[in-house]
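Sat 14:20. Reprocessing the chain from the morning session after the first attempt stalled halfway. Input below, unchanged.
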Amino acid sequence: MQITELTIYPVKSLGGIALASAPLTPKGLAWDRRWMVVDDVGRFVSQRQLPAMARIRVALADDALVLSHPGSEPLRVPLAAEGQPRLSAWVWEDRCDALDEGAEAAAWLGAVLGGLRGSRLRLVRMAPDHRRRVEPHFLAPGEAAHTAFADGYPVLVTTMASLDALNRRLAGKGLAPVPMSRFRPNLVIAGSEPFAEDGWRELAAADGRWRLGLRKPCQRCKVTTVDQQSGEIAVPGEPLRTLVEMNRRFAPGGYFGQNAILLAGEGGSLAVGESLTSAPAASGK
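Finished this time. Tokens:
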């Protein structure tokens, strides 16, 4: 098996950045989900509420996060934290310490996205000293892990074989195939059997430089129905409805990919093209 795609999403629910290599940090790939859009009370806003967020493109310059959108001048946000006001932000039930990126960023988001149920939008980054723990009941005894503003885990792993299987099922319904971008993974792997990832406990570089622990299947939501280029829902309910039909191992719902934590290799990096090994989950897990 080998890595075929590496992607980070510096701002939760905005566009991704494809990379040839990516440094590993305790919170996942460097710069992944370090910022997010929030409403007036600090609750995260995503493509679930505003599918048009997919149209905002994201880049990382040497000194700035750069957001761009058709018809607007790009927004540049310094990478270095520079005394921004501190506030509370929420990802689901997790309260996070965040830094407000200010009025210019808020105005830019308002101009390209509008509001949300009468609420203004703001851009925040995770405070550098904040540690958001991964839910412990899915971890092995003695394990601890942290994440940034991802829904719950620092790394999301998918496989091309699983996408191919899904697209064959869609084709049988007369529907167009969907690209991997619908699932917004960090790590895409080729060379496995379809849905083999659901039976892995660990994934590692062939030379042992890093190891990931696959700890929870990823339940999908309506974001999978959003075209990540246009920001529009092409076929309502798909491919989510088909994923629900395909699942047999897990509780009711549509699952695709595995949520992972870093077990070893902090400070190293992943690279497209490198070979991988996997270790199966223990019997009954």
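The two ends are 23 Å apart (CA to CA).
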